[in-house]
Design brief:
- There is one protein chain.
- Strands 1, 2, 3, 4, 5, 6, 7 and 8 form an eight-stranded mixed β-sheet that branches. A two-stranded antiparallel ribbon has the order 9-10.
- Strand 4 and strand 5 (about 260) form a beta hairpin.
- It is built from twelve helices and ten strands.
- Helix 1 (about 5-20) packs antiparallel against helix 3, helix 9 (about 160-180) packs antiparallel against helix 10 and helix 10 packs across helix 12.
- The chain folds into three domains: about 5-90, Transferase(Phosphotransferase), domain 1; about 105-135, no CATH class; about 135-355, 2-Layer Sandwich (Alpha-Beta Plaits).
- It is an alpha+beta fold.
- The longest helix has 21 residues, at about 160-180.
- GO terms for molecular function: adenylate cyclase activity; ATP binding; guanylate cyclase activity; peptide receptor activity; protein kinase activity.
- InterPro entries: A/G_cyclase (IPR001054), Cyclic_nucleotide_synthase (IPR050401), Kinase-like_dom_sf (IPR011009), Nucleotide_cyclase (IPR029787), Prot_kinase_dom (IPR000719), Ser-Thr/Tyr_kinase_cat_dom (IPR001245).
Length: about 375
Amino acid sequence: ESENSAMSDVYSFGIILFEMYSRKDPYDGEDHREVLRLVADPIFNKRPEVPESCPSLVASIMKECLDRTPGSRPTFEQLDLRLKDLSVEHVEPGKMNFSMQDKKLIQAGRNEKLLFDVFPQHIAEAIRDGRKVDPESREIVTIFFSDIVGFTNISSKLSALQVSDMLDRLYIRFDELSRIHDVFKVETIGDAYMAVTNLVKNQPDHAKRIAMFSIDALCAANDTLINTNDPSMGVVNIRVGFHSGPVVANVVGSRNPRYCLFGDTVNTASRMESNSIINRIQCSRRAYNLVHRQYPEISIRPRGKIHIKGKGEMRTYWINEERTPSCNVSVSSNESSQTGLSGTRKRDKYNIEILTRVKEIAE
């Protein structure tokens, strides 16, 4: 904790600017402990979004006041000079009564932003322009899969809204990590997260990127509360797996188009995840060879040969050191093969027995 200073007052001024133009509290409806942690986190650097009605010159001042580095924030003397130079037109909120044409343009802009968030740029441009998207082949990519251990059991103890909130908080962190490591997020299906490298752009270190993303994603999951209103439920535990190989990518459907990957590489990557165990990262031998070459200092150890459904015997590897589960997880006898050497995938029916896990998030 640090004492109040002139720079912290400048930060508060930035928050006041947000409140003036948004007419609401920052982070309204979010868990204050999670907000405090993400605000203080130098990687996530959480800040309120600039309100749509905020003029660009004021928005620039607001962003500078909320800069992560106190020394980079303007002084009040500098702010005073800059604000005096602004006219009424520069500081009044943007028009709230839009014409029908304005509303159409705004909505079109939002739709285009969403399009470019979901699809690779060249695919998004083709869809926007109404052009046909042709299948694309890549000789080598690295595909990541993760899912939440005990998701079915967790879901039975939470409301649908609480499950949605847990996944939202987790995937916000995964998405930020995907930007940091330049990993392309393919999709999320329930508790499963799929990402890939060396697909939408050439990345010679694609296996290294997925390995680093996997390690950080595991840490992020283990730092995400299952239920912010009941910390005793513990934090999220995941399984992770990845594999490298060729794929074909294509847009499927027209009404709700999806960007899909096809090929045995996808199946094998999924098997690496489903045959992994709690809080561990498993990769195939081919992925291991690439990671070892691209990131020789990483900690990897062989798991040995395991039976993979549809593949037979495969030699696999553990990435990084073993992490202690955040809570005791007992596996029923008819599911013991899930964490053993069998490749038969069964949905999670873990019985979570919480001992103690009350974690302070606010710094």
